Amino acid sequence: MAPTPEESPTPRPGTVYLVGSGPGDPGLITQRGYFCLQRADVVLYDYLSNPEILRFANLVADEMHCLGSHAERKIWTQDRINAEMVRHAQAGKTVVRLKSGDPTVFARAGEEIEALRANNIPFQVVPGITTALAASAYAGIPLTHSDYASAVAFVTGHEKPGKDDSAIDFGALASFPGTLVFYMGVTTAPQWSAALIEHGKSPDTPCAIVRRCSWPDQETFRCTLGEIPSLLHSGSKIRPPVITVVGEAAADRGMPNWFEERPLFGQSFLVTRPSSQAIDLHYPLAEAGAEVLLQPAIEINDPHDPQPLEEALQQLKSFDWIVFSSVNGVAYFLSRLRAIGLDYRALGHVKFGVIGTGTEAALRSFGFRADVVPEEFRAESLVDTLANEVSGKRVLLPRASRGRDVLPEGLKSHGADVTEVVTYQSDDVVELSSEVQKRFATKGIDWVIVTSSAIAKATVALLGEELKKSKLVSISPITSNTLRELGFEPVVEAKIYTMEGIVDAILEHVASTAD
């Protein structure tokens, strides 16, 4: 007999993972941390953790909660954080407590572990890269140096509120034979710097202040210990998160700051491609130092009516050519082929034409070779290239739900029997994300990248006058003409109409206009 609800056993508690997210760069999270996020039902994350890291999280996670920030919302108390971890775990959920930096370095992991142990909740600690170590790599500040520092000490600049006596021995720190790294010490900097000097540390001791280490807007300030109070204080323009490196190893000896010297460092880009395709721009721009924000202007989905596509797939034997004009066309067409139970033998007799190298690569990823790729990646060139191939032939043209008619009309003019079939749906996004809204209202965005005429129209509709505050990058002359017709002049136009061509054009323009 099945137990009644009252008799049902208490669910086995889920595991809580205390995961270090690193200081900012989402690529610095460990593989173990990534794995935990992929499995999480609930994510409780610090506001200092880069929200891009949440893209790694389980797509069906029940809840993701920011634990507040000084700027926008009240920060959760430690008791509330502890209670939420326990509550979700007792409900049998897998919980990731995502912490900036490393969970065990000034992140109160000890208190959270005590709460979990008191409630018999299983837990694991996943280390992360703490900010001091990242600053050494990202700001060109060696924490150790064979000539100047053979030891490192991490010091909190902000001890637990309510603590009766400081546990920091400034006399010992002043004579410490190595590098000191102060965490969270902006408002207390006048006190701790004065205490070090009072106990014998020279006011001329080299220091380096690193703000938002490994983020796209990282800042590094060189100074001396005596200058610290004028730079860091309660009303300082240098706002948290900040660490301060104190010691001879922090002296500026010309060590390259590779992170801040990258060609696009300090510049922000808005990518308007669909989210699933943004990586082709996001990664190379970020590698060049850019801050990259994502705001799809269009969404790509299955066609509203899949029947015409399925009928075309069932009649593949009657076609001589299949011509693809986009990566999406390839992906949706061949994925649907498999979904209805056909395999690639149905395409053994067909020749393929593609509009460019990106589409060619997409076709190759499915195991097919393109027979025709035009030298210039646009519909007019593809028509010219196929002109002598398609006369009297049946051509299947998988396409978007909207777009130019140059390709079908051009092929027909050369004697082809063309069948068009909507393979994927392209719909405009009608609402900006809160992140992008906030960004335009505060810092603004330096560049907006537009990769098709459809995206150009959707981007103008979505951003309106805000778009005039940014410089525009266009993938091709056709897209540029669409932007001009809408009242917007692109600053950069790619010479090769690919994602790589866009990045190359941006880098060339920035280099040519550098001071």
**CATH architecture type of the largest domain:** 3-Layer(aba) Sandwich
Shape: elongated
SS element count, helices: 17
- Regions with little confidence, pLDDT below 50 for 5+ residues: none
SSE class:
alpha/beta
Largest sheet: 5 strands, parallel
Radius of gyration: 29 Å
Spatial ordering of strands, largest sheet? 3-2-4-1-5
Q: Tell me, rounded to a whole number, the average pLDDT.
A: 91
Number of self-contained structural domains: 4
CATH topology of the largest domain: Rossmann fold
Search tags:
17 helices; 515 residues; Methyltransferase, Cobalt-precorrin-4 Transmethylase, Domain 2; 5-stranded parallel beta sheet; alpha/beta; Cobalt-precorrin-4 Transmethylase, domain 1; 19% strand; 4 domains; 5-stranded mixed beta sheet
Secondary structure topology:
Elements: E1 16-20, H1 31-39, E2 42-45, E3 63-66, H2 78-90, E4 95-99, H3 109-118, E5 123-126, H4 131-138, E6 152-156, H5 170-174, E7 179-183, H6 189-198, E8 206-211, E9 219-224, H7 228-231, E10 242-246, E11 268-271, H8 279-287, E12 291-294, E13 298-301, H9 307-314, E14 321-324, H10 327-339, E15 351-354, H11 357-365, H12 379-386, E16 394-400, H13 406-413, E17 417-428, H14 434-441, E18 447-450, H15 453-463, E19 471-474, H16 477-485, E20 492-493, H17 499-513
Parallel strand pairs: 1-4, 1-5, 2-3, 2-4, 6-7, 11-12, 11-18, 14-15, 14-16, 16-17, 18-19, 19-20
Antiparallel strand pairs: 7-10, 8-9, 8-10, 13-17
Give a description of the structure.
This protein is of the alpha/beta class and 515 residues long. It has 17 helices and 20 strands. The strands form 4 sheets. A 5-stranded parallel sheet has the order 3-2-4-1-5, with helices on both faces. A 5-stranded mixed sheet has the order 6-7-10-8-9, with helices on one face. Helix 15 links the parallel strand 18 and strand 19. The radius of gyration is 29 Å and the shape is elongated.
